[in-house]
């Protein structure tokens, strides 16, 4: 049976790949606390097992195709945030990411030299210890360009997977441990108290309704004003201004048989029935117990819509939510959720909007349509992919990667097709913030490109390395493991000192930035869980795209340094 299975996998390598992907996602689904291998590393281990069991042929063209799709998807998704990270509000986390990434590169070079590693093992040490599986692809691309015998290149590529598998587990767990346990102890802070203070400085509140809850949970109800109502005789604008700290709006008025629109200068009279939208808690506590509620279906029949709006208005970018909420066109508008680079952000008055943010707004249809014009453009669900832009961007990005090179000391470094494709994705992603209709690729397609593309590429790398994995592990396993621990922790230590003593960052934002600087999303999630707050994401989001780009390119750099 086993012999038949081995022969089957060798004869049908495409089916072996699907087996590896399925097994990788299954392996990556297991969690121990906040730690899990994830689907990409799970696919690597699954590929190593399958490769050790059967010598499955691996197509280099298939690997390159999958990896270029992945790189373009990464660049496309982080392009808007990468540009914004260079502006004022993301400067400190961006600088933190640069320092951490440069320290990681330097540490990997020094450790690799001490251990006497070849280009493949050195690149795998870096990719695993810094948990950047994409660097395996750029390293593979660089190795394939070396002027060495084909057998030597194949061995180097196999060694990438070996070293990555050895170093990845601590690379992942070490950042979680540092950011959630060791660094808070060194700072002598309580994560929950520190996060609460940061929330309060941003205008968030956990105990009473404020701007954050008002923009997320609201209801529409109708009430009759009696002659003793404090609103009788006041204008609609004055009535709404009675609770300035809350988002309360009057939409319609029924006066006798007539139904009127609630213009700001309209005067309310006893006997009027008004429709009010406000946070549910405000309606229940401040209005419901003091006014007669009316079930008026016609009056309450206000078309409400929700829309995802892509922020491109330069005047709105850089403005905090408090100031944005006071614009004339926000009357009757509520913000349900807000994301940046796929990460949901806390809704608080002091948090600053950035170009490329995705805002989910809710309100009466005319209000939402008018607001969308002032924010940017509505992103409608679509299944269409602009394959013209996708194909040409990867093609021309690859050409640029091949043609552009620059000297570093005695070494001449070419960008390579992989880095060129990554830069092409960044450019298209940024141009999308200027014109969201350009190069439209649905989020689902990007997710498939980035998740399946990388998992399949890494799985193929594992299959290729499977036959030599155990022998290579016996030769250099303990040295790689200890060296990888150094490469994981040293950037965190240097970044911690730089962020705390030089940049003087808020502790929660510093810790969030450190998780983003080594692209460990699970560490950011663990930090949020321990602090009981979403605010660490404000440090993570500017650092992550910068680190993602730098750490990916380090794969090529490691190969070129160790091949010299």
Walkthrough of the structure:
The chain is built from 21 helices and twelve strands. By secondary structure, it is an alpha+beta fold. It is elongated and about 90 Å long. Among the domains are: 211-300, Regulator of K+ conductance, C-terminal domain (Alpha-Beta Plaits, 2-Layer Sandwich), CATH 3.30.70.1450; 305-378, 2-Layer Sandwich (Alpha-Beta Plaits). Helix 5 packs across helix 19 (507-517). The strands form three sheets. It has a five-stranded antiparallel sheet with strand order 3-2-4-1-5.
Brief overview, please?
By secondary structure, this protein is an alpha+beta fold. The protein contains 21 helices and twelve strands.
The residue fraction in helices comes out at 55-70%
- The strand order across the widest sheet is 3-2-4-1-5
Number of strand segments: 12
Can you identify the CATH superfamily of the domain at 211-300?
A: Regulator of K+ conductance, C-terminal domain
Radius of gyration: 28 Å
| Helix vs. strand class | alpha+beta
| Proper CATH architecture of the domain at 211-300 | 2-Layer Sandwich
Largest sheet: 5 strands, antiparallel
How far apart are the termini? 47 Å
Assembly type of the shown chains? single chain
The residue-averaged pLDDT reads 85
Q: What spatial form do the alpha-carbon principal axes imply?
A: elongated
What top-tier CATH class of the domain at 211-300 fits best?
A: Alpha Beta
CATH level 3 topology of the domain at 211-300: Alpha-Beta Plaits
Unreliable stretches (pLDDT < 50, length at least 5) are 207-216
Number of helices: 21
Fraction of residues in β-strands: 5-15%
């Amino acid at each position: 049976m086993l012999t038949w299975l081995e022969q089957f996998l060798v004869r049908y390598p495409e089916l072996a790949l699907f087996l590896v992907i399925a097994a990788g996602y299954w392996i990556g689904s297991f969690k121990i606390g906040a730690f899990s291998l994830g689907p990409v590393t799970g696919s690597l281990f699954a590929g190593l097992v399958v490769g050790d069991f059967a010598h499955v042929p691996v197509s280099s063209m298939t690997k390159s195709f999958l990896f270029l799709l992945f790189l373009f998807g990464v660049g496309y998704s982080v392009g808007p945030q990468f540009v914004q990270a260079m502006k004022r509000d993301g400067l400190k986390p961006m600088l933190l990411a640069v320092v951490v990434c440069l320290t990681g590169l330097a540490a990997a070079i020094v450790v690799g030299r001490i251990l006497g590693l070849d280009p493949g093992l050195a690149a795998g040490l870096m990719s695993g210890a810094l948990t950047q599986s994409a660097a395996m692809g750029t390293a593979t691309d660089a190795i394939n360009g070396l002027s060495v015998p084909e057998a030597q290149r194949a061995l180097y590529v196999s060694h990438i997977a070996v070293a990555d598998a050895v170093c990845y587990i601590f690379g992942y767990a070490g950042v979680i441990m540092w950011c959630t346990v060791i660094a808070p102890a060194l700072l002598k802070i309580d994560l929950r108290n520190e996060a609460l203070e940061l929330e309060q400085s941003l205008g968030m509140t956990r105990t009473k309704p404020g701007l954050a809850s008002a923009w997320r949970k609201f209801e529409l109800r109708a009430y009759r004003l009696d002659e003793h109502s404090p609103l009788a005789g006041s204008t609609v604008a004055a009535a709404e201004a009675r609770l300035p700290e809350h988002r309360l709006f009057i939409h319609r008025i029924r006066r006798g048989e007539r139904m009127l629109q609630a213009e700001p200068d309209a005067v309310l009279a006893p006997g009027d029935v008004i429709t009010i939208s406000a946070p549910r808690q405000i309606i229940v506590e401040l209005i419901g117990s003091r006014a007669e509620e009316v079930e008026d279906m016609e009056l309450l029949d206000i078309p409400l819509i929700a829309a995802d709006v892509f922020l491109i208005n330069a005047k709105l970018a850089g403005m905090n939510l408090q100031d944005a909420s006071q614009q004339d066109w926000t009357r009757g508008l509520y913000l349900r959720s807000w994301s940046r680079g796929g990460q949901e952000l806390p809704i608080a008055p002091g948090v600053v909007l950035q170009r490329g943010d995705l805002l989910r707004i809710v309100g009466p249809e005319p209000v939402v349509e008018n607001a969308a014009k002032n924010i940017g453009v509505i992103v409608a669900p679509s299944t269409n992919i602009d394959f013209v832009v996708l194909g040409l961007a990867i093609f021309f990005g690859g050409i640029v990667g091949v043609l552009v090179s620059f000297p570093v000391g005695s070494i001449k470094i070419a960008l390579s097709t992989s880095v060129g494709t990554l830069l092409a994705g960044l450019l298209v992603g940024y141009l999308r913030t200027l014109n969201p209709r350009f190069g439209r690729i649905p989020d689902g397609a990007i997710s498939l490109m980035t998740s399946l593309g990388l998992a399949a590429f890494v799985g193929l790398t594992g299959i290729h390395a499977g036959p030599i994995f155990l022998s290579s592990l016996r030769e250099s396993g303990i040295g790689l493991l200890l060296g990888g621990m150094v490469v994981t922790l040293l950037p965190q230590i240097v970044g911690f000192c730089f962020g705390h003593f030089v940049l003087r960052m808020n502790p929660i934002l510093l810790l969030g930035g450190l998780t983003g600087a080594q692209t460990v999303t699970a560490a950011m999630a663990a930090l949020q869980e321990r602090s009981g707050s979403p605010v660490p994401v404000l440090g993570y989001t500017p650092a992550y795209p910068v680190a993602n780009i730098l750490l990916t390119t380090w794969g090529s750099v490691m190969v070129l340094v160790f091949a010299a």
